[in-house]
Write a structure and sequence with these properties.
Elements: H1 3-37, H2 39-46, E1 48-50, H3 51-58, H4 62-70, E2 77-79, E3 82-86, H5 87-100
Antiparallel strand pairs: 1-3, 2-3
Helix pairs in contact: 3-4
Length: 101
């Protein structure tokens, strides 16, 4: 057996594999860039507002938040008896609601 057919077979196997690896690395770099741009969004997402804070900062009546939570129309987290609303998710929800109505 000669080395040339073996090297062609190896090359035929490795070239697509190298292209696949390069594609995944490129995609990962894009994700990392994207993650760096959304650091502020991650910070906002981790910030939980009480219902009073959510109502006050968004200019909506506090009592209007509770039915939305009960109907699961607004994102929320319940810790014990206290209801918290993730700030970024609330902003997204309010934006979608204003666009729809």
């Amino acid at each position: 057996m000669t080395d040339k057919p073996l090297s062609n077979a190896v090359r035929n196997f490795l070239d697509p594999l190298a292209q696949l690896i390069a594609h995944h690395l490129h995609a990962r770099l894009k994700q990392d860039e994207s993650a760096a741009r959304t650091a502020e969004q991650r910070k906002q997402l981790s910030r939980l507002l009480t219902t009073a804070e959510a109502a006050k900062t968004r200019g909506i009546p506090r009592n209007s938040i509770y039915p939305l939570v009960a109907q699961k129309r607004i994102p929320f987290v319940r810790l014990g008896r206290t209801i918290y609303v993730p700030e970024l998710r609330l902003n997204d929800w309010l934006a979608r609601a204003s666009d729809a109505g």
